[in-house]
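Fill in residues.
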């Protein structure tokens, strides 16, 4: 680009270009965009406007969100075609462009289904509007707990922005603080929502530095935040904040007949560039884990190193310094684990200031090895032994658990375990997801409540 792309804040009075702007560079260090960072006063005024905005009728919300999702994937938004948007996201974030394209489809589909997906969480014993005739004899009405939702968005995968669309569909006003790593997706989506008909007082984009970030949460009624374990620790005791931390998704193989499922295992580790919370980071094996680790390593080693904007790219790319820092962290924490892949390093220098993050496969000698809890933003998996004598303790604290060849008694215990969010039985990758299916519970469980009502 001859000029830097300007990503303006999208406040309650419209787009706003600030004096304080952050330069965003691609993986090679070349500047490609400037992101306006808003001050505390701007945040306060924007959130105040969200609190005062009227609620758009449900059918109108559903129509506008669906229309915006279609425009997101096909139109020229903010001066960028869909191809230009996908290319810049890939070159800045390091995500393979195929992942960005898949995320584009997911956003469009989720926007079309946003309202229908959200209302799947409504209790069967309730109605969605107090005007329903059932309230004349007494019933429960499903209603919002609050008015304004703040979102501290991540930059690891564009499709995470499908979640807060459900809040918008339920009548919440939404304030998004974008990731400084990848602000292009929320900027494009919110611009599309506004162009489709949502007023500026219903959804805003508030890029800030870290000193102002918590002001957005304090000024909202409810918040959804993404990040590492430190984010979970920070907000874990606040019932108005929904923390979306590491997934630590896992696969459990319960007998020797795992070879027919190797494609699913490898896909769970490497799909989406291995960058998502729904990628498998540990595989537990009932029996000898060595053949499993060797087979996974053989498959992952065959993946080529390609720039992220190559149509055949599978692996993520990072600036060379970031890649080397991740490599040091991995090797420092591998301890006595046996390296089947990546023991000599995972950085493949592309020679332009960026590097491909090669896969890593390590085998640990016990199921409670601390390494199985390490989640990194590339295909990195820990293979561990497991036995029924240990019960399910090593499998806890998991976003997605795929169980291959498990018996009913075991599945009962896994489904009943509160710290396991999702259980997939059989040949289903950990990254399987579709609109209407809960990610970490339904978002509406956090946003909505029921009220008793009886009327004349």
């Amino acid at each position: 680009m001859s000029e830097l792309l300007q990503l303006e804040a999208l406040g309650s009075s419209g787009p706003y270009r600030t004096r304080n702007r952050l330069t965003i560079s691609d993986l090679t260090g070349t500047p490609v965009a400037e992101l306006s960072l808003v001050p505390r006063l701007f945040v306060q005024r924007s959130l105040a406007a969200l609190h005062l905005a009227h609620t758009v009728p449900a059918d109108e919300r559903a129509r506008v969100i669906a229309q915006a999702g279609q425009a997101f994937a096909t139109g020229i938004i903010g001066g960028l075609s869909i191809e230009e948007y996908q290319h810049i996201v890939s070159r800045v974030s390091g995500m393979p462009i195929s992942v960005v394209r898949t995320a584009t489809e997911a956003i469009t589909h989720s926007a079309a289904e946003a309202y229908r997906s959200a209302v799947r969480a409504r209790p069967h014993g309730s109605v969605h509007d107090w005007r329903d005739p059932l309230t004349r004899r007494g019933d429960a009405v499903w209603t919002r707990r609050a008015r304004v939702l703040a979102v501290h968005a991540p930059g690891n995968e564009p499709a995470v922005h499908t979640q807060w669309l459900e809040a918008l569909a339920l009548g919440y006003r939404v304030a998004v603080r974008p990731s400084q790593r990848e602000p292009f997706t929320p900027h494009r989506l919110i611009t599309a929502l506004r162009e489709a008909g949502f007023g500026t007082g219903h959804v805003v984009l508030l890029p800030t530095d870290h000193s102002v970030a918590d002001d957005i949460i304090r000024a909202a009624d409810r918040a959804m935040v993404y990040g590492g374990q430190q984010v979970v620790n920070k907000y874990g005791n606040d019932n108005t904040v929904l923390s979306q931390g590491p997934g630590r998704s896992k696969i459990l193989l319960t007998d020797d007949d795992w070879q027919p499922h190797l494609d699913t295992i490898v896909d769970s580790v490497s799909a989406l560039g291995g960058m998502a919370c729904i990628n498998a980071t540990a595989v537990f094996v009932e029996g000898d884990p060595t053949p499993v680790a060797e087979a996974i390593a053989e498959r992952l080693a065959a993946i080529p190193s390609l720039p992220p904007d190559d149509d055949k790219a599978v692996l993520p790319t990072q600036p060379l310094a970031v890649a080397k820092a991740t490599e040091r962290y991995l090797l420092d924490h591998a301890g006595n684990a046996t390296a089947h892949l990546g023991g000599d390093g995972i950085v493949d220098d592309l020679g332009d200031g960026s590097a491909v993050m090669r896969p890593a496969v390590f085998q640990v000698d016990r199921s409670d090895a601390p390494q199985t809890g390490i989640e990194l933003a590339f295909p990195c998996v820990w293979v561990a032994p497991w036995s029924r004598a240990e019960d399910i303790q090593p499998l806890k604290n998991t976003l997605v658990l795929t169980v291959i060849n498990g018996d009913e008694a075991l599945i009962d215990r896994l489904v009943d375990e509160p710290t396991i969010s999702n259980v997939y039985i059989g040949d289903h990758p950990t990254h399987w997801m579709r609109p209407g299916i809960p990610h970490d519970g339904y978002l509406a469980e956090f946003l909505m409540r029921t009220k008793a009502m009886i009327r004349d």
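The mean pLDDT is 95.
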